[in-house]
Each structure stands twice: as C-alpha cells, then as structure tokens.
Give the backbone structure.
Amino acid sequence: MTAPGIRDGQDAEDLDVEEVLALVKDGNRPARPAADVTPDPEATPGHGHGHGHGSQASPSPEARHRKSSATPWADARTRAARAARSLAARRTPVSVTLEDALGLVLAAPLTALTDLPSFDTSAMDGWAVAGPGPWAVRDEGVLAGQDGPARLVDGEAVPIATGARIPPDTTAVLRSEHGRTDEKGRLHPGRDLQHGQDIRPRGQECRSGDQLLPAGAVVTPAVLGLAAAAGYDTLAAVPRPRVEVLVLGDELLTEGRPHDGLIRDALGPMLPPWLRAMGAEVVALRRLGDDAEALYRALTTSAADLIVTTGGTAAGPVDHVHPTLRRLGAELLVDGVEVRPGHPMLLARITEDRHLVGLPGNPLAAVSGLLTLAEPLLRTLAGRPTPEPYTLPLREAAHGHPQDTRLVPVVLRGDHAVPLHYNGPAMLRGIAAADALAVVPPGGARAGQEAELLDLPWAAAGIAACFT
C-alpha cells in the first residue's frame, strides 16, 4: 500500500514512521502498522552514518528528550548566525593580494586612489578632431599608453585608438565608421558631431577619495577589476573562517564499491568544497572512525574556528558526539532541529572562540544541517551579508512532515520551482541535480503555493567562482 501524497518514485522508506502514518490517515485509510514501514534512520537512535539505517530499537529517553527540546528551523538558523557575532567582531582583518582576495569580504571601504579615468581618454577608435570639419589629418596617430600627445589646432585631426590620451584642445572624437577622407586627404564627418562626443573625461566614473564599495562587500571578479583600476595591489579583507571536518564511522570506505556491510563515504568528498563555497578555509579533513578518545583528542587540539562532524549525533552505543561534548563542558546552543531530513543536528560552543556543528551521517540530512547551522555561522564569521529571502511557486505539491519543516531539493524552471524525487535522508541523487532547497512548512505545500528557497552556492555564483 502506498500512502496518499507520496509521489511516484518516492518510497515510504524516504519518510519517518509518523510521516507515513499521517499521510495514510489523511487519506482516510487504515493506518499500516509501524512495523511494516522502514523508519527514517535519522529518526531512530542508532549509528546513522552514511547510507546506513541505524538501530530499529524504540527511542531511548535521551532521544525522546532531544526530540521534545528540538529548536524550530528558523530559530536554529538565527541562533547559529548570532553564535559567532562576538567572535566575528574580534577578528583581525588581513591584507591579501588581489589574486587571493576572490570570495573574501572587504574589511574596509574600497576608496578610489585615483580619478577614473585618470585623464581624458578616447572611448572609440577614430580621430581626435579640433573645431569644425573638414580637418587636415596628421600622419602619426595617438595610441593607448602614450604620454603627452601634441596639442591640436582648429581644423586639425589625428588618428586615435580606444583608451588613448586625448590631445589638448580636442573638440570630440569622430568614430572610424563615421568619417571619410576626400582625394586631398581631408577628413569629413558622416554625421553631426557633438562637442565632447566619445571622450571619457577625467573623473567620469569617480574622483580620488570617492567610496566605491562599502565594507562588507563580497569580492567578486568584477570587484577585483574595479580595485585594480582604482590603484590597489592588496585589499583589507575579513579572513576566511578556518574549518576542520571530522568524518566519523567505522563502516565508511574511501575508495571502491560498497561491500560486506561497508559503504562509501559520501560526505568526505562533498563537505570541503561545499564549505569553501560558503567562504571557509578547510584546514583539515580527518576520518576518525567510531573512537571516543580520538574524537576527544581532535576536539581539544583543533585550532579551527569551526569543527564539523558527520554522524554520531544520535543516542546509539557508538554515537560519541554528545558524550564528548559533555566531557569538554561545551555549551549546547542547538540540540536537535524541527526539520526533516536532519533533525538530530546540533550546534555547540566548545570555547569562546570555537564552535562545533554536528551533522547527521545520512548525506541529505547532512546537507540540511550544513545549510541550517553551518552556513549562518560561517556567514557571520566571514562577514558576508545575509541573503535576501525569496520565494517561488511550486509546480507540484511537496509533501511535508506533520510537525516539522522539510527541506526538499528543487530545480528552477522559469518562474516555478519543481520538487525533485529521491529526497530521502540517505539520498544524494536529488540534491545533485538541484538548484535550491525549498522550505516546505509542516503539513506540506500544494502546487502553486509560494515556497521559500535556499540557493545552492554553485547554482547562484558558478562553480569556478564559488569554490576558489
């Protein structure tokens, strides 16, 4: 039996037990016993790494407590952004070359060091002319990079290249396609010529000392060009937050095909470039297995601003994240979030200057945690502006959790967002094809309903730009 509201290509195994039962009851059909449904691995206490399914045991009292104390999704994002504010205010700006500044945030306003342009220049190839035509044409032209071209007198013209310095007393520039010469070599205009035409006057774009961009602007390729034009060799920027990734789980392979109960680590290859796209510097990726002491040593010796762990956030026998945080005396800022997939995620303050984001082990659940907790915190540390929220109508209905927010991969088609299949917590097939994640409220969203969207960095900025 398929629950009403589950789209073709989407199995009941993609949903939590309570989701399937709620969908069945909404269709006025007898609820199938929970034993007939494979629970969502992130909803049960168990290992929950990679694509594993975790324990099928009943939730422990600790797990039930965490679920009852889970933070609403929007509040969790706000807490994550605020958690790093005091640390961000204390970070010392760095001076970086233009080559190394892409993707950073300006720590000080970008102020012009010169007039732009710094002298009157020709906007077109053609002739610099003085007075009304026709004009006698000089033999030697004026090229870009030449200094101090000779003054023109009325009735005189000189060939000039785009970007070349305008000779003194020039009236206008006559474009190459708008001029003709007669049998005596005199230049005639092919159309009326206005005073100052096709001349870029000194300071047209800015004057020395003008503010070109405020502090907080993200350095894009265009910003690099503007900075170079304005005379800069280096920029004062907010340093990239340093992030260390700890992949937990004994069942994870780093190469080859899954075999003998072992599965490939999908998060190790995925998280570092994703974090770099968020403006972070990934200082290390370490695989620790299920070793509580190794995790403790890693957390106590790391110098990263943010540690991101994968797996081990539930309450199973080898889920060591919570016990290790207690041992460290860390402050839990978020312990579970009302979002699917990914609700066992957490955010902790280890010391005044260091935080930890614990991601569930299932791949799409980890992506959910990355965008819910890591992205706002890193955005604050990197000094990046908060993106303006936006919505698009859904082309198809998107099922929802009865109580929690749901994040669903979508592609953007014209003025609609199209929900993708393969959006279960252990699946990456949907997110690999997605442009964004749709924020689906509890109970789901109907076709045509506006849904908030979370852009994926490569869809918004281009692969080369955002991963540099």
The radius of gyration is 30 Å. Residues 350 and 403 are 31 Å apart (CA to CA).
